[in-house]
């Protein structure tokens, strides 16, 4: 959910604080020469122009919902690291839904318009709890419950976990989140909701998992940046916490 929300006049939407102006969630993770995009939000073009990134090795999709996938057509403008295609990774079900609704992007094509640097996308299914490699990264997808559907969390080099759009974890996934340097949790709002973790639930998770750094992302317009930061410091004394905002860069 982008902030401000269309037609809303709440305190957060009316705020002039730059961190209360948030595009839909995507993330870029880099190691050495390897660059991976997590999700293609509807705001991907704006994000890429703002952060000045135009090349990538691959895309990882957490799930098929529109706020995480409908920027997929923008991938045609990115320069692949190898050849003329960009590999796309996710679980079988998510890939089936993405390819069904964007079939034209997965059909090999010859060079056309000069702006179209990526000629097609390739499908690369992954299995939960099985490591795979992309460039310099070792990655594992874990299963997450996201209300009536499942989503993927991704663990990079057994050190950094990216877990947005999640309400609960199967036991096998939960155990893999222990002893991490950084965990990034999506937290939609303060109130409990059906398909997303809320702030206090994420706090409970962090207290048990004890990552070195805990990052909160994917916040709705119910959440003011500074107020959330103060609340987390009061509830998690001694824990290093970060509230994500557009353009945030973290050393992994």
From TrEMBL:
Pfam families hit by this protein: Lactamase_B_2
Superkingdom to which the source organism belongs: Bacteria
Gene3D superfamilies reported for this sequence: Ribonuclease Z/Hydroxyacylglutathione hydrolase-like
InterPro entries the record matches: Metallo-B-lactamas, RibonucZ/Hydroxyglut_hydro
Stored SUPFAM superfamilies: Metallo-hydrolase/oxidoreductase
Record-annotated Metallo-beta-lactamase domain positions: 23-198
Protein's name according to its UniProt entry: PhnP protein
